[in-house]
Amino acid sequence: MSQDAAPTSPTAMTDAELAAHLAEVAGRLLLEVRASGVLSLKALGKAGDATANQFLVHALREQRPDDGLLSEEEKDNPERLAKGRVWIVDPVDGTREYGEERSDWAVHVGLAIDGVASVGAVALPGAGVVLRTDAPGTVPPAPERLRMVVSRTRPAREATEVAARIGAELVPMGSAGAKAMAVVRGEADIYLHSGGQYEWDSCAPVAVALAHGLHCSRIDGRELVYNQADVYMPDLLICRKEHAELVLGQVAAVGG
């Protein structure tokens, strides 16, 4: 191949293009691992996590060597705290759903800049979709009765009580990324979570939701801050901006 015909180097990609590309490729790798048919359900989750994580970590260190990195499947590194740009990834968000061959699992590739979820992509490989910050679409209008996505196994008390107060329909769903993207895609209207998460569970989804014009905050209205020494994040609210005041008010009323 001549030098003139060489493909565009990944280093020439914007951060958003890189995030989307890596999330999409990791999703395809995960589907291939699952389709191999040689792993038990328990082993499949471990193999999928390890495969996607190795790809994402090596690719990001190759393409953005000066940035920090935080992954659910990697030992934490304190040097990231001195970085203004930190990639926060979840190789398989919803390992259980992935292993059960459901569609409500995701791959998260997010970039926090000065603590703000600024760039990212969420791949939904089971649906063949990648949502990204550089290609925001229009969130479809809300129906007359609001829909709130909740855990399909452990719905949070605050979510169920708020849903009852505002007359919202509960929509059980798997991973955090799938729930957040359901709001982005207009399949739901509110994602209220109070059961505890980690930074990798929400960084990329929040970046994508913000790019689509949605409200994202803690359930008491405070801002979400990333790249902290303690990566535990107790709660999260993603919803349409016109519903934020209503939901936050009801959370306060039920003692969230």
UniProtKB/TrEMBL annotation:
SUPFAM superfamilies according to UniProt: Carbohydrate phosphatase
Q: What is its EC number?
A: 3.1.3.7
Hydrolase listed as a keyword: yes
**Pfam families per UniProt:** Inositol_P (PF00459)
Per UniProt, the keywords (alphabetical) are: Hydrolase
How would you classify this enzyme at the top EC level?
A: hydrolase
InterPro entries per the UniProt record, alphabetical: CysQ/Inositol_MonoPase, Inositol_monophosphatase-like
Q: Which positions are tagged coiled coil? A: none
Q: Name one GO molecular function term.
A: 3'(2'),5'-bisphosphate nucleotidase activity
- What is the recorded name of this protein? 3'(2'),5'-bisphosphate nucleotidase CysQ
